[in-house]
Recover the amino acids of this structure.
């Protein structure tokens, strides 16, 4: 009783946190996990919390003594769950069933934060209308199953059976074990057939152990006598013990359940493997591997429950929750061993004349995928529906079928099987039923794909289908607003809003292309298009989010990282969503263009720029005063650079052998040169310098194909080098022409030494059209000779 008393305190606290939504149902309402700007309640939150209360209620109500004390509270919890879990989510239209299968899917209604007065239909919110993954569906199934065991109401059992039937039908048999996906498409709107895609990823979850909770739910379903057979449970044990476990009892570890079906095996990010301890009812090895080393109160309770209740009986397959006299209701589903066909489905599995079924599969590898219709026993092929060669890494194949043969004639009503066969692998099957009359399946939820976007509405409700713009479309030009209606023939009032501005109001639909979105008027960012239509009795609306981005792009110039720029480059500018007023363009903060039109062929003379990185900035202003700035870095490379750091010879030695390496880059050197002595303390920071032995005329010659620029670094004690330093260039070393240069003192050192920069731009001085391929430097008439030294030479050679 102490635990029950503690349970009441906890559950009553949870109940106190329930809030009433606009439709009158209670829920744990708050920020939506996938978009916190929206408020709502969700299936899984309700199921997890109510399941605890139902566990409490079941314990109490089956014990007469406990019922006397806690029965009223238990019945209160049961009633809350019946109304605010099962009834609520059914009334909201989030249940879809076909034949023996059923599933819940996410709602598309949300609240504005803090405002519980009105639900807003917002299909564009992430995961709206998306079917729940299996762990969330089975949690709802367990709630329904517990309600059935408590109340005996068949409607709850029926719901639980259909949820677990669906899960079993999606299990893939490989050898002697099952593997199943965390998320499979389980309602028709999960698949965009025209695009041959699913709305969500399909596969075993790589790093969350959701399958552990799913297995616990499967075990409870088995014990309750529904869906799963003893063979099913043995196959699931095989998954955990034969496939996932590393067979090490000292240091047990578990890999993901799909480890053996993935073509390349699982990667290091696949970390969802764990012991499925709920299988301890059936297998001694599972019991042996359970780690009871935890020391928390929760760990102690878990250990006590397992040892005193589960381990009280030897492992076996007795159904502990099946009432006396009841027979198990097991789904007989055709499973065959296959490795790479990890999704195979038909929705709906029961269809009347003209009703379309979605048939879809996903493979993990390539091969010929053949889809056939077989008879009910799966022995005779009746019709080939599709045949496609899948790519090397597999993929999705989805299509619709209306129950007709190749000639367009309806097949006879009855039971059949859809079979998918992947060459080199195996096949999977799914039973279907063709009815003589239209199915009695309640439509409830209506949907339509338009431009790869899903639009939904409930039966009896008008639906607005927006053709343009698309959801989350980024506008790059004027865009027409076009939409149509479903289920509402005579609108009495139509309004179209963009954010807080009304664009249209009338008693009829606007004509095609009558309404236009002009992105040059709108601010940058996300906007909401709201269309509201009424007929005097009811009003429906649809919201479309779209985005406006203003851009300014530079063309012609290659951005840094995309290549080099040389010579004359023709650049231009383009804008998006900008009503231009003025544009100004600068390079390294120097203006090269300003005007009221975009430049299309603006010549950039890179010869006027040094080789290396430069910064271009374009600044455009629109007629509304809004500004767009685009800044890029680009690299200029008009030259190859020949660098000579005047390195002296280097002695090389290795294993008793030695040699002198000449590191000079000159082609010819007169006899009067030597390398400067390193003991000159002032210049010792530069180990590579040439100096004349005496005040004689000496020269150095470099081979410089297509010479354009020369930069020299000179050390001297006099700034005036006229007549003492001479530069010459030649196309062939036969005739030399003098080169003008400019010199500049760039640094003053100790003891009167100066660092002098010399620059000569040869291209502007050339006396002939021939390229100048040789450069000569002459030192003369400077005494003492030791006070005129060459520290570095740079020769820039044209790439043209």
């Amino acid at each position: 009783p102490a635990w029950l008393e503690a349970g009441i305190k906890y559950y009553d606290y949870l109940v106190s946190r329930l809030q009433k939504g606009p439709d009158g149902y209670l829920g744990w309402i708050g920020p939506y996990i996938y978009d916190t700007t929206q408020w709502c309640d969700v299936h899984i939150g309700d199921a997890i919390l109510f399941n605890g209360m139902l566990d409490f209620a079941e314990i109490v109500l089956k014990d007469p003594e406990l019922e006397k004390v806690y029965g009223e509270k238990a019945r209160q919890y049961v009633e809350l769950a019946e109304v605010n879990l099962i009834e609520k989510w059914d009334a909201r239209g989030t249940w879809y069933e076909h034949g023996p299968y059923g599933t819940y899917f996410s709602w598309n209604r949300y609240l504005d934060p803090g405002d519980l007065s009105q639900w807003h239909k917002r299909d564009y919110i992430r995961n709206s209308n998306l079917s729940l993954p299996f762990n969330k569906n089975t949690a709802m199934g367990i709630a329904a199953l517990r309600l059935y065991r408590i109340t005996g109401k068949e409607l709850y059992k029926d719901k639980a059976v259909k949820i677990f039937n669906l899960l079993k039908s999606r299990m893939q048999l490989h050898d002697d074990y099952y593997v199943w996906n965390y998320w499979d498409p389980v309602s028709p709107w999960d698949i965009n057939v025209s695009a041959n895609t699913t709305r969500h990823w399909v596969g075993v979850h790589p790093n969350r152990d959701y399958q552990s909770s799913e297995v616990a739910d499967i075990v409870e379903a088995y014990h309750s006598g529904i869906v799963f057979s003893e063979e099913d449970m043995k196959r699931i044990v095989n998954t955990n013990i034969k496939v996932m476990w590393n067979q090490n009892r000292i240091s047990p570890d578990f890999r993901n359940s799909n480890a053996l079906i993935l073509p390349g095996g699982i990667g290091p990010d696949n970390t969802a493997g764990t012991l499925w301890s709920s299988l301890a009812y059936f297998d001694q090895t599972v019991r042996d591997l359970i780690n009871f080393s935890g020391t928390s109160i929760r760990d102690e309770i878990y250990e006590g429950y397992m040892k005193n209740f589960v381990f009280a009986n030897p492992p076996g397959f007795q159904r502990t929750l099946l009432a006396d006299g009841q027979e198990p209701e097991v789904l007989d589903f055709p499973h065959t061993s296959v490795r790479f066909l990890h999704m195979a489905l038909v929705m709906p599995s029961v269809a009347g004349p003209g009703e379309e079924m979605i048939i879809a599969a996903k493979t993990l590898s390539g091969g010929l995928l053949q889809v056939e219709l077989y008879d009910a026993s799966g022995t005779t092929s009746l019709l080939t529906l599709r045949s496609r060669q899948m790519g090397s890494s597999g993929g999705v194949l989805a299509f619709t079928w209306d129950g007709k043969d190749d000639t367009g004639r309806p097949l006879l009503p009855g039971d059949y099987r859809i079979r998918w066969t992947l060459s080199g692998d195996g096949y999977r099957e799914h039973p279907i039923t063709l009815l003589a009359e239209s199915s009695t399946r309640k439509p409830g939820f209506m949907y339509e794909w338009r431009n790869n976007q899903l639009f939904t509405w409930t039966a009896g409700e008008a639906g607005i289908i927006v053709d343009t713009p698309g959801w989350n479309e980024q506008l790059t030009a004027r865009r027409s607003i076009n939409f149509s209606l479903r289920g509402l023939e005579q609108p009495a009032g139509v309004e179209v809003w963009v954010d807080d501005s009304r664009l249209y109001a009338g008693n009829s639909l606007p004509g095609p292309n009558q309404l236009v979105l002009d992105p040059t008027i709108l601010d940058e960012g996300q906007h909401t298009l709201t269309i509201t239509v009424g007929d005097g009795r009811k009003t429906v609306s649809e919201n479309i989010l779209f985005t406006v981005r203003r851009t300014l792009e530079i063309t012609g110039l290659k951005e840094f990282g995309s290549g080099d720029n040389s010579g004359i480059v023709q650049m231009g500018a383009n804008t998006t969503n900008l009503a231009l007023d003025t544009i100004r363009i600068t390079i390294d903060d120097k203006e090269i263009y300003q005007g009221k039109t975009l430049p299309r062929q603006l010549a950039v003379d890179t010869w006027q720029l040094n080789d290396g990185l430069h910064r271009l900035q374009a600044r455009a202003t629109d007629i509304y005063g809004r500004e767009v700035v685009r800044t890029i870095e680009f690299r200029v490379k008009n030259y190859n650079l020949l660098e000579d750091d005047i390195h002296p010879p280097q002695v090389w030695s290795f294993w008793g052998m030695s040699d002198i390496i000449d590191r000079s880059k000159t082609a010819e050197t007169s006899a009067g040169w030597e390398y400067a002595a390193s003991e000159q303390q002032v210049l010792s920071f530069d180990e590579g310098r040439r100096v004349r032995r005496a005040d004689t005329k000496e020269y150095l010659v470099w081979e410089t194909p297509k010479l354009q620029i020369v930069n020299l670094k000179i050390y001297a004690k006099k700034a005036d080098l006229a007549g003492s330093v001479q530069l010459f260039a030649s196309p062939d070393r036969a005739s030399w022409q003098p080169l003008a240069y400019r010199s500049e003192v760039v640094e003053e050192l100790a003891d009167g030494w100066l660092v002098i920069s010399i620059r000569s731009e040869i291209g502007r001085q050339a006396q002939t059209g021939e390229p100048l391929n040789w450069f000569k430097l002459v030192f003369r008439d400077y005494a003492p000779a030791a006070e005129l030294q060459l520290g570095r030479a740079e020769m820039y050679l044209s790439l043209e």
